[in-house]
């Protein structure tokens, strides 16, 4: 007797494969992952104006360099992080973080909107915010079962906001009902420093039956994605501060 298939896929017109995870896989995940945290692979935006994302793959010491990320956004939400000591990268947890961009947990904690550390001019250089406003995107690529996590720095959030408002929501779509392409553009700040900015393009509107499947997938994955703690989300680039835009 042959082995049971652990997942089936629905192929859309452009070849995007939607995972239809069987009940046996859901049961296995519930049993085997009890007490464990799912660590989503993180796609990283490079510093210094690079045009290729760094994405983990089989060789853990050598990430893939991809000039575009294509998939379905199955979840996205704001996160905030405040490091009392200057953040220099790595897995240093913030002193205060927010999983919804509204209420912080830690020190000082409380309402993010009224927090003095979340106001422009509160950082040590007097230009940006001491608290870093970011936005997480969980992108499910074709043929995969788990999405990758891409965290947008402040300088890329405006582009994502425009994309969602003008290309998705006002056109009658949802983020999980279309295929999105994410690329990078080299941008120069007012002070002449170069950095990378994310760009978004609608590649395809999924068929109604596929949207229904992705709607269910999105609802199911949010119970996990909204629990991933803030660690190395923020991109360390001082040039981003003066480009921060309030939303």
How many domains? The number is 1
Protein structure class? alpha+beta
Largest sheet: 9 strands, mixed
Task: Give the DSSP E fraction (strand runs of 2 or more residues).
Answer: 25-35%
The radius of gyration is 19 Å
What's the mean pLDDT score? 84
Keywords:
about 250 residues, alpha+beta, two-stranded antiparallel ribbon, 3 helices, disordered C terminus
Layout of secondary structure:
Elements (H helix, E strand, L loop, with lengths): L6 E5 L5 E5 L1 H10 L9 E2 L9 E3 L8 E3 L1 E15 L13 E3 L4 E4 L3 E2 L19 E10 L7 E5 L1 H15 L9 E11 L5 E12 L2 H18 L22
Parallel strand pairs: 3-11
Antiparallel strand pairs: 1-2, 4-5, 6-7, 6-10, 6-12, 7-8, 8-9, 10-11, 12-13
Overview of this protein structure:
This protein is α+β, with helices and mostly antiparallel strands. The chain has three helices and 13 strands; from the N terminus they run E-E-H-E-E-E-E-E-E-E-E-E-H-E-E-H. It has helices at residues 23-32, 154-168, 208-225, and strands spanning 7-11, 17-21, 42-43, 53-55, 64-66, 68-82, 96-98, 103-106, 110-111, 131-140, 148-152, 178-188, 194-205. The strands form three sheets. Strands 3, 6, 7, 8, 9, 10, 11, 12 and 13 form a nine-stranded mixed beta sheet that branches. The chain starts with 6 loop residues before the first strand and ends in a 22-residue tail after the last helix.
